[in-house]
């Protein structure tokens, strides 16, 4: 009796070992980078963590297919290395055949977030090698941010330009009005303006004129009367 | 090694020529065309050549400001857009082109420039860049309206030929030969002490250039170290994954020994892995040359993305770049506008605002060429050939004209009336002998270098490989280069010829009357 039991047990173990081995059908390789992710808070990978992993995969399969038949014992782990990496496979209830890889892949993809969080890892540090993760696209607002900033700066600049141009025009108009007023007053003979050769003296202060220092009226040089 | 020629050039060329240009402008009270006409009527071509060079410069230089605006507006995002690669269409990985090169280079070549594979493929105008260029020109127009008193500075990125690059660096950063200094100085009071200003400006300019180069090289070093460490980490990860070793067993220190050990124990797998294992070297990282203006945008943005609070540093950096750029643009546009506003023909008919507006508008429209897909290649053509040779010639003619045609003694007397002090013998020796000789030798060196290198080539971005490749310029590009150089240098002899012919005709008409 004992011998038969021993024989069946060994057969089952061998059969199960057959199911889970590197590059077996429907087997997936998992790689964890605990030290990279957690640094000093890294936990050691031991049998308890393996148990948790099996539990998470079983949970994933239950959630995906809504069957309540997947047990922790259905998940087989093998070839655990120091890296930490291992292969796993999910067997069905008869424990003789493995669940198709596509199902396992879809299940894990659906619940990837839950698995990551159970181990305090992320998509990059808990890698399922054949299962590519969909990368989250960056958040893009409806109007690109740069256009908004551009619009603000553009409005400011245009406002400043318009203001300066209008101010320049107004100043010129005021100057013209003043000079016409002065001409009118001149004709009336009420204001005398110093004129030299037909040019009013104020304009000689601009770039075109030269001021001869000898003739600048310096009252102190002449004796006062 | 660069600092010695730089300082020698500064003392022999930079300060004397700066002083010369400031003094000429201050004495003649006119922009570059008018000032040279007063010195000698045959030299009106020099002023025109300066204006032409300034015109070319203003056409292409504002594109740099447009790029700075683009980066500045994109700095208000978290994370910075050049920090990560965008995802590909089915979101399983990153864009292919971005994988092959780094994310900052991808952002520059693809998302900013959208560069075409070669000069011949022109492509369409990029509307985003066109908008930024318009904004840059509006800012320049605004600053011109207000008027400005500061001298413009232009940073030219250095050239491997050390002596030429030292000279051109001094020329460009001080703004010699553009006529902008003459234009600015013409607004100075006649009694302004331009000697002291010349010395102070050139010393401050050198100090800031040296400070800027220290900052540049330290950021370059930071980028190289960071890339080197990432490379090492990638190799370590690859080895860990391939051989299922424990994490932390491979570090940067024991990497080489472990590599040998693995090669001995697992020769087959190691041989399979060998093509992917890159030999990381800090020297190689430091040697990576980035072409032209890309240096400012790629290297710095790569360094900034790795810092804490990168948005702040990014904004600060691009605002600084903008201020430098707009300052230089003001110098150039002043060099173009002052002769225009000085001439009676145009100034009496149109007010100053309209002239400035028209000049800015024309430059903006022409500048749209540089926003096309092949625009960066045309930009490099202008950057390399529009100013360098012509400036050397202009400055040479200026020095010789002031010393020998106008007369060094006459100039000395003018300076004495302006400043009130006798001219130091140092300036006289520099102007009369040292500077012209040095410029002539540089000129010959430049020409022989051009002739010896044969066909001119440029660096084109290959998107499929993710790196720059060298290509030859097509015929029409070479024609444009020739036109650029010729149009500014030919002004000088043409101007002399026109004046000569006019004088001859006048003399003949006078003699026939008599």
Automatic annotation (TrEMBL), chain A:
PROSITE patterns: COLLECTRIN_LIKE. One of its GO terms (biological process) is calcium-ion regulated exocytosis. GO terms for molecular function: protein homodimerization activity; transporter activator activity. It is a single-pass type I membrane protein. GO terms for cellular component: brush border membrane; cytoplasm; extracellular exosome. It is found in: Cell membrane. Keywords: Cell membrane, Glycoprotein, Membrane, Phosphoprotein, Signal, Transmembrane, Transmembrane helix. Residues 1-17 form the signal peptide. InterPro entries: Collectrin, Collectrin_dom. The chain crosses the membrane at residues 145-169. Residues 24-225 form the Collectrin-like domain. Its main location: membrane. PANTHER family: COLLECTRIN. This is Collectrin, amino acid transport regulator. It comes from Anser brachyrhynchus (Pink-footed goose). The gene is CLTRN.
UniProtKB/TrEMBL annotation, chain B:
SUPFAM superfamilies: SNF-like. InterPro entries: Na/ntran_symport, SNS_sf. GO terms for molecular function: L-proline transmembrane transporter activity; metal ion binding; proline:sodium symporter activity. Keywords: Membrane, Metal-binding, Sodium, Transmembrane, Transmembrane helix, Transport. It comes from the Eukaryota. Na(+) binds at residues 173, 205, 324, 328. The keyword Metal-binding applies. It is a multi-pass membrane protein. This is Solute carrier family 6 member 20.
């Amino acid at each position: 009796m004992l011998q038969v039991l021993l024989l069946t047990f060994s057969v089952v173990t061998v059969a199960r070992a057959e199911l889970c081995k590197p590059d077996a059908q429907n087997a997936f390789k998992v790689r964890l980078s605990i030290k990279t992710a957690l640094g000093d808070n890294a936990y050691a990978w031991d049998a308890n963590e393996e148990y948790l992993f099996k539990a998470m995969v079983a949970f994933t399969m239950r959630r995906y297919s809504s069957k309540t038949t997947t047990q922790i014992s259905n998940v087989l782990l093998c070839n655990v290395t120091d890296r930490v990496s291992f292969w796993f496979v999910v067997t069905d209830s008869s424990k003789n055949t493995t669940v198709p890889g596509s199902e396992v892949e879809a299940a894990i993809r659906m619940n990837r977030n839950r698995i990551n969080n159970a181990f305090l890892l992320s998509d990059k540090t808990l890698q399922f090698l054949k299962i590519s993760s969909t990368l989250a696209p960056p958040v893009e607002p409806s109007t690109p941010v740069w256009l908004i900033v551009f619009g603000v700066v553009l409005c400011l600049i245009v406002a400043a330009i318009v203001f300066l141009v209008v101010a320049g025009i107004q100043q010129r108009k005021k100057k013209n009005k003043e000079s016409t007023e002065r001409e009118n007053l001149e004709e009336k003979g009420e204001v005398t303006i110093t004129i030299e050769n037909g040019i009013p003296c104020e304009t000689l202060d601009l770039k075109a004129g030269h001021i001869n220092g000898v003739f600048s009226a310096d009252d102190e040089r002449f004796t006062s009367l | 090694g660069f600092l010695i020629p730089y300082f020698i050039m500064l003392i022999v060329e930079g300060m004397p020529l700066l002083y010369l240009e400031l003094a000429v402008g201050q004495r003649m009270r006119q922009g570059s065309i008018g000032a040279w006409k007063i010195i000698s009527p045959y030299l009106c071509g020099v002023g025109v050549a300066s204006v032409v060079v300034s015109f070319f410069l203003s056409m292409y230089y504002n594109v740099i400001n447009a790029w700075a605006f683009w980066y500045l507006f994109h700095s208000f995002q978290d994370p910075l857009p050049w920090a990560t690669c965008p995802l590909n269409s089915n979101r399983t990985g990153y864009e292919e082109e971005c994988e092959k090169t780094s994310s900052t280079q991808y952002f520059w070549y693809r998302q900013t420039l959208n560069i075409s594979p070669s000069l011949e493929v022109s492509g369409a105008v990029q509307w985003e860049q066109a908008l930024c260029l318009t904004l840059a020109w509006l800012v320049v127009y605004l600053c011109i309206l207000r008027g400005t008193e500061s001298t413009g500075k232009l940073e030219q990125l250095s050239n491997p030929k050390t002596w030429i690059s030292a000279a051109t660096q001094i020329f460009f950063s001080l703004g010699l030969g553009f006529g902008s200094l003459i234009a600015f100085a013409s607004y100075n009071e006649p009694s302004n002490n331009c000697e002291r200003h010349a010395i102070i400006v050139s010393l401050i300019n050198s100090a800031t250039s040296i400070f800027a180069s220290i900052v540049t090289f330290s950021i370059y070093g930071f980028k190289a170290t960071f890339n080197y460490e990432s490379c090492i980490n990638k190799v370590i990860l690859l080895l860990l994954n391939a051989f299922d070793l424990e994490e932390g067993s491979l570090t940067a220190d024991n990497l080489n020994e472990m590599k040998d050990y693995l090669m001995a124990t697992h020769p087959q797998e190691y041989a399979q892995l060998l093509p992917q294992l890159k030999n990381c070297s800090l020297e190689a990282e430091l040697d990576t040359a980035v072409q032209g203006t890309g240096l400012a945008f790629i290297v710095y943005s790569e360094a900034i993305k790795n810092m804490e609070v990168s948005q702040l540093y990014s904004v600060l950096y691009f605002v600084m770049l903008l201020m430098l750029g707009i300052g230089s643009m003001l110098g150039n546009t002043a060099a173009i506008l002052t002769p225009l506003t000085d001439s009676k023909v145009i100034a009496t008919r149109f007010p100053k605002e309209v002239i400035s507006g028209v000049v800015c508008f024309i430059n903006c429209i022409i500048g749209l060429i540089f926003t096309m897909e092949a625009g960066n290649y045309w930009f490099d053509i202008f950057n390399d050939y529009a100013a360098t040779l012509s400036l050397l010639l202009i400055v040479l003619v200026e020095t010789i004209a002031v010393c020998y045609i106008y007369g060094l003694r006459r100039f000395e007397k003018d300076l004495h009336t302006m400043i009130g002090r006798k001219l130091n013998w140092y300036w006289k020796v520099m102007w009369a002998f040292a500077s012209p000789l040095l410029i002539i030798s540089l000129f010959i060196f430049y020409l022989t270098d051009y002739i010896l290198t044969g066909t001119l080539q440029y660096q084109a971005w290959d998107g499929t490989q993710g790196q720059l490749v060298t290509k030859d310029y097509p015929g029409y590009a070479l024609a444009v280069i020739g036109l650029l150089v010729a149009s500014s240098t030919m002004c000088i002899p043409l101007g002399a010829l026109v004046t000569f012919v006019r004088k001859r005709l006048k003399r003949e008409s006078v003699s026939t009357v008599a």
